[in-house]
């Protein structure tokens, strides 16, 4: 039996003595009471602090417990004799070792010895709503009362800082998606599901004008280091980005690059799976800080464009009112989607949006003009970033990524052609990609030139046809 366990046994024996003593106390003369205290503190000069795994009204996993567990996992492999091994997909180190249940280790801080014991109890529950058995885990720290201030102050701070640092070191980004609101009922049901986020995009590989890229990187860096600044100006620590531009210009790629650059998790919010505005709030609360909340193709996700679609709907509703089957369909439709523009505005900007902090909200769209101005006004979407057709600077980044070349005699032809026609970075990239081992960089550049010439010709033909049609109409 280890020291910590002996102390905790001793603690419970002393506890029993106190209990009996308290009962008998009334028959003791009062002048003897102070001897009792001296006697007890001589018998058991140790303090114990217990950290439970779950705490709070909503049985939320305790942050302190998590941090201590991570800290101890870092120390245990050298110190503990009985270890527990888990395969952790979310960590860089696939095998995570931690102290086994009811195991004990000794830690040392500034020359002071401390004992940690991990406890695991299984309780039987009589509640109808909870599972019949309930597991409880806790970590108990034992130390001499002489070191009370050192342990409660510097030692605890040291553990929390170390725990955080180990977590950042081992962290793998996660990509979350929301489960349909209709699946949220039931014990242990989750609002978000996740996988490990492994997109390789970075700002180095992102093809866009270097000046614009630098501006975005600076903005993100400023945001990351802005905790005090945001507190000072009295603003929630969050930032909104609107990414807009034609398909294939790198909006989704930029989100991945931002996630990798900031080391933030990504919450890909599928609005069509959210039933009501209140569910949006619940999703927000269940997302962590240091994260990016993404709503892709916001113009398609919801009827946010107001009047035009409403009128169309009203006409349909009249038809449906007469037909009982259609009436039921309409009721189902109404039930399915109750997220409104104001709900979304509240989500991005309301009082709840500040919970957690250090959060980026990104909307993407192909049609920026279709969006309600209220949704994208500054303050909600602080930075509007246009991703457009491939320019020469963006092409050079792609040539470096795909062909590993920084200059070539064909570059000036490509520069001229890119100025004369619109081609998305996705198309340029596809042309540059070697399709067999025989293709070298020159042949890939030739393929791109041919494709650009064809695109230019097509655009010219279309323009001619348009002109001809106009002339005919005159
Ligand atoms: N600016 C870019 N830099 C690097 N690669 C790009 C860029 N734009 C597009 N690509 C390439 O093209 C593919 C499609 O790009 P992406 O999915 O980011 O486009 P998108 O703007 O999100 O399109 P959509 O509007 O259809 O969602 C990516 O896999 C990427 O390889
Ligand atoms: Mg996209």
UniProtKB/TrEMBL annotation:
Q: Which SUPFAM superfamilies match?
A: P-loop containing nucleoside triphosphate hydrolases (SSF52540)
Under Gene3D superfamilies, the record lists: 6.10.280.40, P-loop containing nucleotide triphosphate hydrolases
GO biological process terms, alphabetically, are: response to stress
- AAA+ ATPase domain location is 237-391
* Residue intervals passing through the bilayer: 6-24
Could you tell me the superkingdom of the organism this chain comes from?
Answer: Eukaryota
* MF GO annotations: ATP binding; ATP hydrolysis activity
**Cofactor(s) of this protein:** Mg(2+)
Basic and acidic residues composition bias: which ranges? 314-333
Q: Name the family the entry cites.
A: Belongs to the AAA ATPase family. BCS1 subfamily.
What protein is this chain from? Putative ATPase, AAA-type, core, AAA-type ATPase domain-containing protein
